[in-house]
Structure formats: C-alpha cells, structure tokens
Design a protein that fits this description.
Layout lengths: L1 H9 L10 E9 L9 H7 L3 E6 L2 H9 L6 E2 L6 H6 L3 E2 L23 E2 L2 E2 L2 E13 L23 E4 L2 H11 L10 H15 L2 E5 L2 H9 L5 E5 H9 L4 E4 L6 E11 L6 H11 L4 H9 L2 E2 L2 H5 L5 H6 L7 E4 L4 H15 L3
Parallel strand pairs: 1-2, 1-3, 8-9, 8-10, 12-14
Antiparallel strand pairs: 3-12, 4-12, 5-6, 7-10, 7-11, 7-12, 7-13
Length: 346
C-alpha cells in the first residue's frame, strides 16, 4: 500500500533513513528517494545515495545551518536566497552538467539562481497547489471557490500544509492578491485575517503529502490544500479524490531543485553524477508517475506531454496563478512568524 509505505518513510524525517552509497548524502523530502527518478546514478554506481529526510523547507535550512552535513539538498525556490546569505552553498560547475542547457529558461530567471558568481541552483521539478477533495462527500460546487476553507459547513474537515509558503499563497489568492512580490501591509493584514478564519476549520496541518493523504484516506479530512503528490498517493489507493486547480480565485505553483552544499562529506563527482541522472529525459516519466510533478527539462517534459496526469495536474489553466518564486526575504520571514502565531491560536 503506497500510503503506508510513504508514511513510514516520513516518520524518519531529518534522520539518515536510507543508508546506501556512503559517498553521497542527499537531504530531501520523503518520496524523492524513488530510484527510477535518478536511475542513471544507480546504473553507474550500483546503489542509491544515502538519504536523510525533512518535512519542510524551513526545518531543512535550520538543520543545515546548525551543522548537519550533507552533500546536496532539495529546497524550493523561495529558500535559495537564505542558503546563499547564510553561506551554506557554492555554485555548480555547469560544464559538468551536459543537460543544463535543456532546462526551461523560466526556471533560472532570477539573479538568486544565476548571477556573475555562477549558477547556485539546479531547478529539477515543479508542481501545482490546489484543492484535493473527497468526491463522494464534497461537491464540485463546494470547491468552486477557495472560500471552502472558511465555509462553516466544513468545520473540522479541512487540512492545510504546515508550510508558510503554501498557506500564504492560499490566503493571498483567497483575498484577491495574485502576486506576492510586492505585498502591501493592507494585503498582508487581509490575508492574515482570512488565514485565522481558515484555521478554525482545520482538523490538522499536514507535514508531508503522505500524511495529508492518510488524513483523507482515514476519513478525518474531506478537503485539503494539496500538492500533486498527495493526490497521486490517494489515486494509487483508489480513493475518490478530485483535484481542483481552477477555483475562481486561482491556484498556485512552485518549483524546487538542488543546491551544492559547502564542505559536503561525500564525493563531489558523485554529486554531479546524481544531478546528471536527475536531468536525463527518462527522469520525467519516473517523476510524474512517482510524485505527480513536472520536470524542468524541456526534453523530459516532451516525453510525457501526452500523459493524462499532465493534463489533470500540470496543464495550463485559465485562472489566476500565484507563482511561488523568490520574494522579499523579510516579507517571507514576516509571513512565517505570523503563521506560527495563527497555528498557536493567536
């Protein structure tokens, strides 16, 4: 059963849960240790890297900043400036990454990722955030609007991610802000008030997609703000799940990738072998089947363009999209602090 397998792995978050090739340690989200995604590395070295897992981006950063050692980490785009400012990462040598020029240019369109000092980030995967819902207990009309999360009819039946970026993307969209690059104090306050109201309906905040899927599969939750992978896990267990990305107010997108950690304990050449395996076109199908995400490589995406899962969870849609791209670090910290207050009931 996919849900139980993934949940079991997730319980080992932030611990070296999968010891394999001792010369490369990957600090990652649970679920990405599926060998088919980096099959070329396994073929070359005979084993997967050693994996350590974390539950959210801020947790991963704090652990690495506190001295945890790994060779590469897998943050989402909003975090890269924090890694750079803290001096935790060094540029990649793209001459060692043959498929680097196959990356879709929009994923590197920021000085945070690529500047005169080098390439600090290799974007690898992207996904959507929308409303996952039980199609047997929740109607399409119920989830036509993001206001389902503050609808009193769903008190105690919703779940939100324990991720400041995702919940603020939801709150901004629900209150009419579709770009978080230049948020006014009024927009922030309006979104915070909405998020406090949504908090009253929350049965649980999920720490990882397998937990979100388990909450829904158990019947504890009928509506969740979800990444693609939570939906994929539920579909694998034949749960009656819908994925609403076209709510009136819109939905969100994000992308993630790998950073090269300074003073990693392992073999630097193997870090490049790992990245090159991720950027093979064949990784696109494996990533889609395992996690439900899209690939940043144009060649990899071309191999899965006609897959039903792309049409369902990754296709272009005609509603506002809040793209979770790097925003003002001070604003992000303000959102993080306010989210902690909201979860605590303040």
């Amino acid at each position: 059963m996919r849900l139980l397998t993934t949940t079991a792995l997730a319980t080992a978050i932030a611990l070296p849960a999968m010891a394999a090739d001792g010369e490369l340690t990957v600090f990652d989200w649970a679920g990405f240790e599926e060998p088919s995604i980096f099959q070329a590395y396994v073929d070359q070295h005979g084993d997967s890297p050693t994996y350590a897992f974390y539950g959210d981006d801020d947790e991963a950063f704090q652990k690495l900043a506190s001295g945890f050692k790994a060779d590469v980490a897998h943050p989402c785009s909003q975090m890269v400036s924090k890694y750079r400012d803290a001096g935790l990462i060094e540029p990649w040598d793209t001459s060692k990454i043959p498929n680097f020029d196959k990356l879709a240019p929009e994923f590197l369109a920021s000085d945070v990722f690529k500047d005169d000092e080098g390439v600090w980030y290799i974007p690898t995967d992207w996904g959507a955030v929308g409303i996952a819902y039980n199609t047997e207990t929740v109607t399409a009309e119920d989830v036509a609007s993001l206001q389902v999360f503050v609808n009193p009819d769903f008190a105690g039946r919703t779940s939100l991610p324990d991720s400041a970026d995702d919940v603020w993307a939801l709150a901004y969209l629900a209150t009419g802000t579709t770009d978080w690059d230049d948020v006014t104090d009024e927009e922030f306050d309006k979104a915070a008030a909405w998020l406090r109201e949504a908090h009253q309906n929350v049965a649980a905040y999920w720490a990882d997609p397998s937990e979100q899927a388990q909450l829904m599969a158990s019947g504890a939750v009928d509506v969740a703000w979800s990444w693609n992978d939570g939906v994929v896990y539920l579909q694998a267990d034949d749960y009656p799940v819908g994925f609403q990305r076209e709510a009136t107010e819109g939905s969100s997108t994000f992308f993630c990738g790998f950073v090269n950690l300074k003073d990693g304990p392992g073999n630097e050449d193997k870090a490049y072998d790992f990245i090159n395996a991720w950027l093979e076109p064949s990784a696109g199908k494996a990533l889609l089947d395992t996690i439900g995400y899209g690939h940043t490589s144009t060649e990899a995406m071309a191999t899965i363009a006609d897959e039903p899962a792309v049409a369902e969870g990754l296709s272009d849609i005609d509603v506002p999209i809040l793209a979770q791209t790097p925003n003002d670090p001070a604003q992000r910290e303000k959102q993080l602090a306010e989210f902690e207050k909201i979860k605590a009931g303040f």
